[in-house]
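Posting this for the archive.
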Amino acid sequence: VFETFKPDYVFHAAAYKHVPILERYPMEGLQTNVLGTLNTARLAAKAGVRKFVLVSTDKAIKPTSIMGAGKRIAEMAVQCLQEQFPETEFSITRFGNVLDSNGSVVPLFRKQIEKGGPLTITHPDMVRYFMTIGEAAQLIIEAGLMARGGEVFIFDMGEPVKIKDLAVNMIRLSGFIPEVDIPITYIGMRPGEKLYENLFADQEQVIHTHHKKIMIGKVQPCNREVLEAFHRALEETSPLPDIKAVKNWVGQVVPEYKPQPLANEA
């Protein structure tokens, strides 16, 4: 594809993003979200791409899941590639959930309402940042155009929304009464989930840009030797090693990663 079409811009949004599934199959997540990113970014640079934008996630900050930790490693890989291929402007965009996107909570709630409920929520206090598909796409493109190489762009997503409030509002907007016509059930937090997400870590600082919704995060520099060792091991490791060992291995690259134990970890 790169050889045939010779693109000027690459927006890399491909990833496995289902947190609980990746807790069960961490190597699948790392192969796609880390190695896939690295391979695509390297090919882009070798093909003379002008700008490469990695679409990351707020789950990469203080990660408690393989999905989040893998995305943080992907961020670090892109940062390191900027040093290696300075003629391509690599950048990263980091933001929360996109309303009504594939696999998000809105289509799930819609299906549950159509079936008469119940709406399933993991925890009554869980909150998330949301933006619309159009807004997310526009900000990714704008941040990519602003990039000069190596930036982590953080989007201002406003105030976080309680998932319970979202469920109640969707029931009402569908013409039903919450907990009367359509019940709400709490099913407990799933593996790797957090009650709330962060858009930048405690040690990170943000710089404001001319765009009121786009900031630049001053993130930790990448450790190239550690990353290269991790990538080599990732390419050489069999697809189904012990889950606990994988988590320990990821923790050596992302020290702030705090994995949640699974009931059946081995």
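The CA atoms of residues 126 and 195 lie 5 Å apart. Residues 26-46 form the longest helix (21 residues).
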